[in-house]
Amino acid sequence: MIALQLQASLQASQTTLYVVENPDSIDANSLSQAEIAYLQQRYEAKKTISTLNRYTHQIYVVFPEQSEKPLPAYKRLEGYRSAGYEVLQSLKNEKTETAQIQTSPTLKAESVAFLEGLLLSSYQFLRYRSEAEKEAIKLASLQVTSANITQTELDELANLVEANFLTRRLVNEPQNYLTATKFSEEIAEVGKQAGFSVEILEKAKIESLNMAGLLAVNAGSVEPPTFTIMEYKPENAKNAQPVVLVGKGVVYDTGGLSLKPTPQSMDYMKCDMAGAGMMLGVMYAVAKNKLPIHLVALVPATDNRPSGNAFAPGDILKMMNGKTVEVLNTDAEGRLILADALCYADRYKPMLVIDSATLTGASVRAIGDVAASLMGTADRDTTQKLIQAGEEVYERLIEFPLWDEYGEHLKSDIADFTNLGKGEAGQISAGKFLEYFTNYPWLHIDIAGTAYLHAPSKYRGKFATGYGVRLLYQFLKNM
Hints:
It contains 14 helices and 20 strands. By secondary structure, the chain is α/β, with parallel strands linked by helices. It has two domains: 3-149, Leucine Aminopeptidase, subunit E, domain 1 (3-Layer(aba) Sandwich), CATH 3.40.220; 159-478, Zn peptidases (Aminopeptidase).
């Protein structure tokens, strides 16, 4: 993680980054006439990033994006995050170890977004690389000179990026390391570091609670399931009733007896706990930055495998709330373990419950990897505030309806409903299934397309993206 530290003024002969409105915003004494003329040409050509080669070090200048029509604020900030990504690639190629940045007082939000994009772009998963030290990004520190960015704000950003990295690291971990038990142990360790409590329910307790969904999905595994409860309750919490987060923790998904194909499917199913990883990242960021909010997070965790004891299509499950489910496909397992957690959430009398899961391929087919699917029963104002938070951090959401007609997709002849909808609108029927286990304001986020990428995407990187951590942190901070 690149360290961020305020400094009073720029130092000579050091790689320097400027985030400024125009060439006139840079101290002319620090540049030659030729350099000033070059920057002026670049600015007039509407180039956003310019580089000056001093041979011993580099100077990078970031100008605002110039367009004929004014950009919405969220798009302008995203442009700065992208610029942070571009500059980081140059710093990486130059093997720069330390750099400094000066920001314009009129571009505070833009400068923070630039730093965010740069930091997020520095993530690497090198734990299993034999030449990790050689491949690691060399940039270790960034000194910030700013008239209106405080060290507290830099620390908040650093903690948020660290939370994103935590989520990405866990999602990238292979299943032969990250079992359900190991995942719970990792959560407990993070709780100690960040300052929130952790309780781990093991199989006997899960059985006593009749968590039928979690137990069924786990039946084919040699590893026991876990149910982990995180809680952050500061004395100055603004909410009398907690916000409860629920994350799908399927640490590896073969599809069970409804076996997945391997290429571009089962071979990447270590990422099926990204919803749980997202909620852990949110808990870390909220606790580290001491947001005044009572927050609970629930993680049902297991792998889903075929074996002689595995649950099978045609099985009937009696869930925690007494509802019966006919299992038609064992690869629709995420909604079964989420159902248990949603039932458990009721004991907190929550003001709001938000769940997140890599739940359906239908979400990917509908909107790709540029946004996540959103649906739920929370009031319009709350829903819009979550969508707005997504725009602010550019982790966008597309809202889908939960009309009663979609419940028809889940009809069963022998149980209350099935765990599998139709071929069309699959992300909605999955959300409709979850709704049957809620009786409080609730929102569901399907992150199947955004949590894990097979090709690089700027500061989101390749493979685990940490999607949703910044989104929910912004939403909770706005509260």
